[in-house]
Amino acid sequence: MIDALRPGGRVPDMELPDHMGNPRRLSELAGGDPVLLHFFRGWFCPKERQFFRRLVDLQDDAEVAYARFVSVSVEPPQVQAAFRAGLDARWTFLSDSERRYLDAFGLRETTDTVHDPYVPTCLLLAPDLTVKTTYNGYWFWGRPTMDELRRDFRALTRAAHTDWEPPGP
User: Fold this and answer.
1) 3-7+34-157: CATH architecture
2) pLDDT tens, 29-51?
């Protein structure tokens, strides 16, 4: 993994097609809010499906708390669209089917020579794409729990908003 993806680094503002095939920039998707940037193997992985079910349960809270999710895989947009719909996920999936960022970010999973996917990795980003926390999900237990994501999002939101404390009388 490159240094830009480690805590304190700043993720390059990548541009990839979304699950509908529309080009999207990471900074645009962040929209000034904290972001969970999730690189994943693909729909075929049972570990991914289990993790995504938990993220789907968290998406309602993230939406009202002004937090964003972005998931990235090497699958083409139409496969991502079907997987996303099957999950009832509402956040953006980005397709790196050309594998433009796989090696550039140092996230190629070398043990899967069939799918040539990303190493499952979760990054919690500040609105300016600075990395707060990195989770290595190669082994399932390395992925963040939903409680860890809540704590990370709380810290990022508190740091990003000077009005965290309610105004006095």
Assistant:
1) 3-Layer(aba) Sandwich (3.40)
2) 999 999 999 999 999 999 999 99
Both tokens of residue 49? 């499906």
Let me know: does 141 contact 148? Beta carbons within 8 Å: no
The H-or-E segment that residue 55 falls in is: helix 46-64
- The one-letter code for the residue type at 95 is S
Residue 114: what residue type?
V
Q: What's the pLDDT tens digit per position in 56-80?
A: 999 999 999 999 999 999 999 999 9
Overall pTM surpassing 0.70 (yes/no) = yes
Q: Rounded to the nearest 5°, which phi and psi values hold at 111?
A: -85, -15
Query: Domain map of the chain by residue range?
Result: 3-7+34-157
